[in-house]
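Troubleshooting: if your tokenizer reports a length mismatch, compare your output against this known-good record of 172 residues.
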Amino acid sequence: MAIFRLNHAVLYVRNVAESVAFYRDVLGFGYTEGGDAYQGAAFLRAPGSTNDHDLGLFELGPQAGPSGAGQTTVGLYHLAWEVDTLGDLEDLAATLAEAGALVGQSDHGTTKSLYGKDPNGLEFEIVWIIPADLLTDEDRAKAGVRRLDLAAEVEKYGRDARSGVGISRILA
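Known-good structure output:
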């Protein structure tokens, strides 16, 4: 018996409607069936997911202060969502930048990542994983964090390069 993936995340937010709009309009999430039927809560599903829900949001109200996680309290740093293609990552970089939500981009060698913040200041990562058959010794040798040159990665692998890990790859 072993855990093999994250099923869903639940976040406390100041304003559910504002958070739903962000996750819907910027990241493409949609309501689950009945996911908008609860006062002060919402249940969303990632695009293409067959999961019951991928994200739950619970409203605390406007008096809720910012998260102190990583600064003054222990807590979760971020969640990471995987995209299917490098083109998806490139498109999301533009969407996040347009929304003023892109806060970083990193090259981790075998993965390429974007970092964003939602309206509550909660950070998330969006990751594309280099497929094993496309990995080079240079990719494997990169350790730590480097600046991501997304245009160079797209030129190297192509926009349609599919992620190397993930449940869609496992079941294919």
